[in-house]
Design goal:
Elements lengths: L2 H13 L14 E6 L2 H9 L8 E4 L8 E4 L1 H4 L9 H7 L4 E3 L3 H18 L3 E5 L2 E5 L7 H16 L3 E6 L2 H13 L4 E2 L4
Parallel strand pairs: 2-4, 7-8
Antiparallel strand pairs: 1-6, 1-7, 2-3, 5-6
Length: 191
C-alpha cells in the first residue's frame, strides 16, 4: 500500500464522517428505533382531531379487514394490531376505522430513515416502523445519541418513538420493548 494514499485516506476519514472505518476492537453499540403506533401517529398529523380518540388504521369489517395500527385510546378497550376489525368494533363500539394512506406512511418513514442516515451510514431498516443503527464508531455517550435522535424525530416530524441501545440487534430490540412496557423511552441494558 502506498504510504501517501494511507495518509490521504486518514485525512479523508477525519474530514468526512461518512468514510469512518470500524476497528474490530471497538465495543459494539447498536441502536434500535421503533416508531410508536406509527400509522396512527401519521394519521394524527394529517387530522389533529383524531388525537385522544379511539381509532384504528385498517381494513373494513365487512371485507374481513384487520387492524394495522390502533391509537392508545383504542388500546384501553383491548383493541390490538392484527385483530380483525369486526372484533375491534365489538370491543370498542365508538372506534373510528381509517383506511390506509400508504403514500403518507412511506414518505414519513423515509424522513425518519434520513435522520438515521445523518447519524450513521450504518443503518438498516427492518420495516417502515423499525430500524437499527450501528453507532459503534461514534465517540459520544450512547444515551445522549439515542435521546438526541428521539428528540429530533419527535420535534422535526411529530412522531413518537422508542429507542434501545445494546451490543447487538437482539438485545437492542429487547431494550426497546422493555422501555415501552416500563414507560421509559430510552433504555440501555445493564452492563
Amino acid at each position: 500500500m502506498n504510504p501517501q494514499s494511507s495518509i490521504k485516506n486518514q485525512k479523508s476519514s477525519i474530514l468526512n464522517p461518512s468514510s469512518r472505518v470500524y476497528n474490530l476492537n471497538m465495543p459494539r453499540a447498536i441502536l434500535h428505533l421503533d416508531l410508536d403506533a406509527f400509522f396512527c401517529s401519521v394519521e394524527e398529523l394529517h387530522d389533529p382531531d383524531l388525537r385522544g380518540k379511539p381509532f384504528a388504521v385498517g381494513g373494513r369489517p365487512d371485507q374481513r379487514g384487520v387492524v394495522a395500527s390502533c391509537s392508545y385510546a383504542a388500546r384501553r378497550f383491548g383493541v390490538r394490531s392484527a385483530m380483525p376489525t369486526s372484533r375491534a368494533l365489538r370491543l370498542c363500539p365508538g372506534l373510528l376505522v381509517i383506511s390506509h394512506h400508504r403514500g403518507n406512511y412511506g414518505e414519513m418513514s423515509d424522513k425518519v430513515m434520513q435522520r438515521l442516515g445523518d447519524l450513521s451510514r450504518w443503518s438498516n431498516r427492518s420495516r417502515s416502523t423499525k430500524a437499527f443503527v450501528d453507532i459503534s464508531d461514534l465517540h459520544e455517550d450512547q444515551q445522549a445519541i439515542a435521546r438526541r435522535l428521539q428528540n429530533r424525530v419527535n420535534d422535526e416530524l411529530g412522531l413518537p418513538c422508542s429507542v434501545g441501545v445494546a451490543s447487538n440487534k437482539l438485545v437492542a430490540k429487547i431494550a426497546t420493548e422493555v422501555g415501552k412496557k416500563t414507560a421509559q423511552k430510552i433504555r440501555l441494558p445493564m452492563p
